[in-house]
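User: Here's a protein and a ligand (SN-glycerol-3-phosphate). What would the complex look like?
Assistant: Let me lay out the input and then the predicted complex.
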Amino acid sequence: MPTPTEVSDSDGEPPPVWLWWLAVGLLLLVLVVVSYGYLRGSFRQASTCTIDNVPSLDDPCFALCLEGLANSADTTGRLVGFWSEIDDVYAARDTAMASAEQLIQYETYFMTPGRRADAFAEVVADRAMAGVTVQLLLDHQGTKAMPEKYWRRLRNVGVEIQFFRPLDWRAPLEYNSRSHRKLLIIDGCRVFIGGAGVSDFWDGVAFDHDDGPWLDFEVAYEGEVVSLLQGKFLQNWSCAGGCIDLKQGLHSVQKHGSTPLYITDNTSSLNESSMRLLMQLHILAAKERLWIGSPYLVPDDDTTQALICACKKGVDVRILTMGASTDKKMVHMASRGLYGPLLEAGVKICEYQPSMMHAKFVLVDDGWVSTGSANFDPRSYFHNDELNISGAYPELARKVEQFFIDAMANSYCITHTDWQNRSTSEKIKGQMALLFRQLL
Ligand SMILES: O=P(O)(O)OC[C@H](O)CO
């Protein structure tokens, strides 16, 4: 029988040094991630947003609520285009840019190298060489995959380029707040607003299960709304270091033939959110129908309660969102973790199957519609700069309605039983992702 000393000698080999380093490295990594989450407010108690007695959409007080509560600008505009096939979206933008005579202003979040970025470069370079002022305002994080030589080539032909909020070591946490807007303005008189970045991702090439073009759409307006959006563009352009030259913009445009519209923009703030108030007002004003499109769906508790409340009132509440085709699996897991109470209350949640669903919209009752860059998640509510245009616009509502119906035909609507029976690993992943809910 071995003595205690003999046992200790044979089993007590110290772990190899590399294992210690690995453990220390992992510990540090966890510390950095948790500290980052902590400093960004990931574990904070989310501020509440409960609203009672929301006026109906046809009550003039609803518009006042948008203006006063959700900081929305009251304007007018005419719908001049709607595209829901991704080739058509890029073709419409490229054609409009190619026709510009004085000024192209473009603010976007996401770009990657590829044929879409090449086509974009070709058209803006061509216009710049023809003497058109081209101002590109690019989110630094969302466009970081683009090589420096791409921008150099554009700058060399006179394109003005500013990056929104590059990493600054003196304020590194600000890097979390991005410009998520997608805004193309042509000659100060036509604006394009929609979900698509400038990337081959939208052709469905980048991820597993992504077998077709992404589902998205683009809307174009003319009228006074363009001047106000130019102002929004110039605010961020100036913040990013660009000069505001009013010689070429902010034309006063006739209101004749236009429809009232409301522009809601959101800037980063952990305490308040115009976008959340906008969405909450829409949800609570609905009487018959509330159809929502959002790829990233991480509703806070008050939004969930408002959706449940709408269901209880008899409103037809349906949400179209992404399924297994996703560029952000963690967000999808977090979303699914939150489906339960909504499904139980009767909210229809349908995941688009053929490819990534990326459109962002809210359709309320017969003719009210809101479209733009905002998702239903804390990132759009509290961290990013966003832009949505809303209003009673039956012509646009019909188009978004058809888009929604077509998408639903290719979606799987999850039942409460499906949700309860999801795998243990999905439940665990969902809970892990939700630890960082406020940052998603
Ligand atoms: O952030 P979104 O909604 O513009 O989506 C961009 C995607 O993350 C690109 O992968």
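Summary: The two ends are 59 Å apart (CA to CA).
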